[in-house]
Amino acid sequence: MSGGVAQRVADWLDGAGGAISGPSVVLTWQASMIPPLLAVLLGVAVRLAAGTARLARAERDRVRREHPGEPEDPARTRAIAHARAMAALTDRAPLVLTVLAAAALVLGGVALAGALVSGRSPDGAAGGTAAVVQIAAGISQGLGSWLVGLGFLLFVTWGRRAYKDRGARRTVGILWDVGTFWPRAAHPFAPPCYAERAVPDLTWRMATWTEATGGRLVLSGHSQGSVLAAAAAWQLTPATRARIALLTYGSPLERLYGRWFPAHFGPAALAGLHRDMACWHNLYRRTDPIGGPVRLPADGQPLVDRPPLRDPLTYGRTPEHPLPTPILGHSCYRSDPAFAQVRADLLTRLHTELPAPRGESAT
Predict the structure, then answer these.
(1) 3-class secondary-structure state, position 314
(2) Cα–Cα distance for residue pair 249/7, rounded to 1 Å
(3) pTM (two decimals)
(4) 36: cis peptide before it, omega within 30°?
(5) Most Cβ neighbours (<10 Å): which of 36, 123, 277, 307?
(6) 3-state secondary structure of 182
(7) At a CB cut-off of 8 Å and minimum separation 6, what does 44 contact?
(8) Maximum Cα–Cα distance across the chain
């Protein structure tokens, strides 16, 4: 699309004397590569669907083993297993993008070479070859031209859906949060970076509060908030950091940021944060498609990752939960009783390892 716009703008600036009779050969070849690329995408999607179905079947057995003695509800078991299998798709994203990027690179090279060598469109270059090749070239060229326009319409439609559909808006919001987290120096055409304001403000607030009160606090962050919390903890002085515990939940620190930005959130960086933040726990669920464990060794300290939270909280009905509890996935971590328990544990560890706050006697 950008190539077509550039061509038409150049045609308009050149005036009537240099009118272009049709799309350039390179753009025609590039459009012809869209159907093969979509075929690769379809193959990847089919394989992912098959793998997800196999994982869901395996998860059904695990769900049954996790709830021994309870009357089995096949629909409930399938729903839990399906949620876990779908959440695991996040871990396959690097492989999927690698395959698609490699396919796009190869097909882009084929398009460029075909345009330079033949100097003609794909159907013209296929003249004189086998009938199958000619038919395939014609179909790919025609279908690719239509797909360019369809892609533009889908792009506009997806933008409109972001205003009306909550799921689409949430997906766009996740991409927006990640994209605007990094300073503009990393991508100067991006929107303003909120982390450049949020992280220093949070760091200043924690430093001034602990200095003024001599107290201790638990810094908790959910999802993208856990990334901001970790970034703020890195900026604290050792004296201030010693009075602060870190509680992350539904955190993409390792699962997303550690894999896509290893220089800043890779194993070495997170291990360094663990050494600096002795009091740190991480909560996650197997049904969460975004958050996950941080996978850090103990190194003589309590493990950062707590056992995965149960989701749903109960399999069947109980006196405390007369209605079936929902599968929460990435949301409502603080409603889990384990959240309050872990938070209290962190405060207790801070209390035993630090002097008492000002105005209180040590116990």
Answers:
(1) coil
(2) 49
(3) 0.82
(4) no
(5) 277
(6) coil
(7) 96, 99, 100
(8) 94
DSSP letter at 185?
Answer: T
Q: Which two tokens stand for residue 322?
A: 């007369």
DSSP 71-115: PP-HHHHHHHHHHHHHHGGGGGHHHHHHHHHHHHHHHHHHHHHHH
β-bridge mates for residue 171, sequence order = none
Strands 280-283, 217-222: parallel, antiparallel or unpaired by DSSP?
A: unpaired
pLDDT in tens, 8-46: 677 677 666 555 566 678 888 888 898 999 999 999 999
Retrieve residue 31's tokens: 């459009």
Gap between the Cα atoms of 169 and 158, Å rounded: 9
Tokens of 180: 């605007």
> In Å, how far from its chain's centre is CA 328?
18
d(CA 122, CA 138): 7
Q: Which two tokens stand for residue 360?
A: 């209180």
Q: Which residues pair with 283 in a beta bridge?
A: 249
Lookup: tokens for 263: 């220089």
